[in-house]
Specification:
This protein has 350 residues and is α+β, with helices and mostly antiparallel strands. It folds into 2 domains: 232 residues, 3-Layer(aba) Sandwich (Aminopeptidase), CATH 3.40.630.10; 72 residues, RNA polymerase II/Efflux pump adaptor protein, barrel-sandwich hybrid domain (OB fold (Dihydrolipoamide Acetyltransferase, E2P), Beta Barrel), CATH 2.40.50.100. The protein contains 7 helices and 19 strands. Strands 3, 4, 5, 6, 7, 8, 9, 10, 11, 12, 14, 17 and 19 form a 13-stranded mixed β-sheet that branches. A 4-stranded antiparallel β-sheet has the order 16-15-13-18, with no helix packed on it. It has a two-stranded antiparallel ribbon with strand order 1-2. A hairpin with a 2-residue loop joins strand 1 and strand 2. The radius of gyration is 22 Å and the shape is globular. The protein starts with a helix and ends with a strand. The N terminus is likely disordered.
Amino acid sequence: MRRLCSVLAMLVLGVTAPLAAQAPFALGGVTAAPGTLQSGTLAVPAATGDQGTTIPFSIVHGARPGPVLALIAGTHGMEYVPIVALQRLRTALDPAALAGTVVMVHVANMPSFLGRTIYYSPADGKNLNRVFPGRTDGTLSERIADMLTREVIARATHVVDIHCGDGNESLRPYVYWITTGASDVAETGRKLALASGFDHIVIDRGRPTDPAASLYLSNTAILRGKPALTVESGAMAIVDEPSIARIERAVAGWLRELGMRADGPPPVATPIWIDRSEVVTSGATGIFEPEVERGHYVLEGLRLGRVVDFHGNLLEEVRAPLAGIVLYVIGTPPISKGEPVAFIGHIQAK
C-alpha cells in the first residue's frame, strides 16, 4: 500500500522514472558515444590467393535508445547510387535527434567497386549476394559475407540491402518484401516495404530457409529474426538525383516507421503488389538486342529481345514467361549463357 501511494504521489507531482540511458555503440574497433557520428573500417584479412579487403562504415548513434538499423550499400560494386546516397546521409542524419542507431556500410564489396565489375568479384569470380552467410576460411567474397554477417547483421535489429540497376541493367525502382522466416518478422518487413515509399513491391516467397545457406544478405538477416528488405533504385550504374532522393526518402520513412525519428514521410498509400515474378535468363552467349524497355507491360510470350552471335546470326528469341511489368531488362549488348536478360513481375489483382 505504501509503494502504491508513493507511485501515485510521483504521478501527481509529475515525477517519472528516469529513461534508460543510451549505451555507447562499438563496431570494428570504433566506439560511438550517444549523440555522435563515428566512422571506421572493417578489415577482411588476407588469405592464400588474395590481399584481403576493407569495408568502410559509419555509425550514427542516437542520443536515446532505440532500434539498430543497418543500411548496406555496394553489395554489388558497380551499383553506385546507394553508395553516393549513404555518403550524403552520413552527415545529413542528426544523431542528437535520433533514437537508436543507424549503421551505414558504405561499400560492402570493395574489390568489385574498385574493379568496376557487375555481379561478380574480380577477386574470386563470385557474386557476393549469393554466398551468405559466408565462411571465415572461404574465398574473399565468402569472407566479406562472413564479416558482414558477424559484425553488422549480428548487431542490427533491422537491415536494408540497398541496390540499383547494375552497369548492365535498365531497371525501374522497386523493393523486395521477403516472406521467409517467422511471421512477425515478415509482417515488420511488410510495414518497412510500405514505409519505403516505393510504389512497386515484389512479394518474394522463394528465398532459402536454411540459415546456414541463406545466400542473400537480406535473407541472412531475416533467418536470424531480423526484419530486412532489398531495395532497388537507379539504373545502368548511372548516378542520378531522382534515384538518390528516392533512397533518402526511404530512409526517412524507415526511421519514422521504427520510431527512431518523429518526422518522416507517410507509407505509400496504394502500392502495386507483384505477386509472382521471374528472372528470364539467356540460353546462349552473344549479343543481346532488347525489344522492350523497363516499366513496359508485356503479355506472356511477347518477345523481349534477341540474342545473336558475333556475326549477327540469330541464336535465340527471348520471350516473356508471364504477363506483367518489365522490372529490369539488360541494356548493354554482352550476354553470357545463363545470365539474366530481364525480370518480369505479375501484378496482383486488386
